[in-house]
Design goal:
Keywords: Cell outer membrane, Membrane, Signal. This protein is mainly β and 211 residues long. It has one helix and eleven strands. It is elongated, with a radius of gyration of 21 Å.
Length: 211
């Protein structure tokens, strides 16, 4: 996924014309984005399930709004985003004696963030930037026990987000971006001594209209 991000940045740099007209980056913008998500939560449990693989790739997509200020070659501002996540029914099995099993399920449906971003202009039309801020997500977990009983936990978590991206103005008032953001949250206890610690990344491609 990191290789795809760097390739996107390189492509944007190659298509940026050397004689590009000046672009004013100051102002509001709004847009839509789609891409891929990469879920890699921490999972802690009994000795038979420790280290179980909940890693998953899925489609993501959403919308964003923001505002930038330009000062010479530097651009800074803030952005808020809301993305739907396709991380559903990630399940691990805990084998027990006698062929019975406990199973644990982990779902993520959406994430929202409010982030600062700042960067520099590689050309009048190409912005390279970093971003960081706070994020909110909804986690749904469940545990089905072999000897009877189910525990379900639905919890809204506040965590952090950080990443980097590139944005290219390709027409008056229109820009294209590619951006990778990593999200981290505190753990959720789904059952006694069974914890998930949500963590995932999103690689998005977006189109913005700049007002």
């Amino acid at each position: 996924m990191i290789k795809v991000f760097y390739a996107s940045v390189a492509l944007a740099a190659l298509v940026a014309p050397a004689n590009a007209q000046d672009v004013n980056w100051t102002g509001y913008y709004a847009g839509a984005e789609v891409g891929a998500g990469f879920s890699h939560p921490g999972f802690e449990g009994g000795s038979t399930v420790s280290g179980s693989d909940f890693n998953e790739s899925a489609f993501v997509g959403g919308v964003f709004v923001g505002h930038d200020w330009q000062s010479g070659q530097f651009v800074y501002g803030g952005v808020a985003s809301f993305d739907f996540l396709g991380f559903h029914d990630q399940t691990a099995i805990d084998p027990l004696f006698g062929g019975k099993t406990n199973s644990y399920t982990y779902d993520l449906d959406w994430v929202a963030s409010a982030r600062a971003r700042a960067g520099f202009l590689a050309s009048d039309q190409l912005l390279l930037y970093g971003t960081a801020g706070v994020a909110v997500t909804r986690v749904e977990t469940s545990a089905d026990f072999a000897f009877g009983g189910t525990e379900t936990v639905n919890k809204t978590l506040v965590g952090g987000a950080f990443g980097a991206g590139a944005e290219y103005v390709f027409a008056p008032n229109w820009s294209f971006k590619t951006e990778y953001v990593e999200y981290l949250f505190d753990k959720v206890e789904v059952a006694n001594s069974i914890d998930f610690k949500p963590r995932f990344g999103t690689l998005n491609f977006g189109i913005s209209y700049r007002f």
